[in-house]
Amino acid sequence: MIHKSHRHIVRIPALAAAAIAMTTTTAFAQTAGEQSSLLDRWILDGGYTMIFIGAAVVGFIALSIYNFMSLTKAKFCPDDLKAALMDHMTNCRVRSAIELAATHPSYLGRLVAYSFPNIDATQPEDLGRDKIEDAMADFTIAETRKSMTWVNYISVIAQASPMLGLTGTVIGMVSAFGTLSDTGQADPSVLAEDISVALLTTLWGLINAIPCIIVFFILKNKYAALVAECNHSAEEMINAAVATVNADTLYAKIPEGIAV
Q1: Domain containing 73: what range?
Q2: 173 and 153 within one domain
Q3: Which letter does DSSP use for residue 38 in this model?
Q4: What is the pLDDT of residues 107-164, one digit of tens each?
Q5: CA atoms lying within 13 Å on the CB side of residue 242
Q6: pLDDT by residue (tens digit) across 34-45?
């Protein structure tokens, strides 16, 4: 009797575990079925055009991540480089500033290395500011053409996504009218597939286009702000060098007895 009771007690956890396993398996199967149904209803029913829209979504995400990682202060106007260059220019060590900038891959480093060789020591009043600013402008134009290329691709995707959605809409409507022509009746169950193609492609085209437009303008403004900061920093360095060169002249203009 004791052995039979013991066997009965041992079987209870085994049966419970089996019941839990069956319940869990059924739950996972139901969840997978629901996910499959949602996948079919919201994506796969959109037809082959969804492949191109999906590629546009992936491209948008990849470009956004790349641009947000590229457009940072550390890659454009790092504080340590700015401070070191300012120290060199304040002490009129122009050659040292250019050599330091040439070894740094940041935007500010390349800007200084490109434009500061135009500093003219024979013009102490402004150190040839006009030539320096012209070189800075040339550098900014060339870099903007390069750096904004990847940002502009997001704008291309923003414009192309609704067009892809419209293409899917046209395909779905053409197919729907073809079905009507073949069957001779407007049966919703027959037209559902074609209508899904028409609506889903438009939906996903807009879903991708709207954030594309927003992110494009965010990145564009961020790039403009970083470039403006770099140019302003370079201007401050030139002003510091000019002030050092003309220090005696400036102090000579201050009337005696006025505290500075």
Answers
A1: 47-252
A2: yes
A3: H
A4: 999 999 999 999 888 887 888 888 999 999 999 999 998 889 999 999 999 999 999 8
A5: 16
A6: 455 765 665 666
